[in-house]
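Run Large ribosomal subunit protein eL43 through structure prediction, thanks.
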Amino acid sequence: MSTKKLKSTARFGARYGTKIKTRVLEIEKKQKQPFNCPKCGFPKVKRKSRGIFRCRKCGAVFAGGAYVPETLTGSIIKKMVSQKTFVPALKELIEATEKTKHGLEEIPAKARQEKTAEKRQKHDSGSKGKESVV
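Sure, done. The structure for Large ribosomal subunit protein eL43 is below.
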């Protein structure tokens, strides 16, 4: 049996199809490559279990993705935090939520009920003129 294309996934034999085996091959390739430790910097990180990684040099244990210690999303968030680019957007978000809270609190419950009653009357009066004849 030739294993040039399928490499380690040749263990599945004729089962599961080529596409699935190539996906497994890509994941296993990512999983087995050496990763740098975030604490000591040496490429000695090994996967212990799903999402748990351990450095064989300094003994640091940390969480990451299922197959790789740092996912794409995690690296983006890490970069944002280090550059503090999320702070202006966070301030805008807080201001917007405060405005909506204050907007709802300014109108007392009785006034809100009156407004909804007026809207219902307008809606009902508009539909009465357009009654269909059966």
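The CA atoms of residues 21 and 126 lie 64 Å apart.
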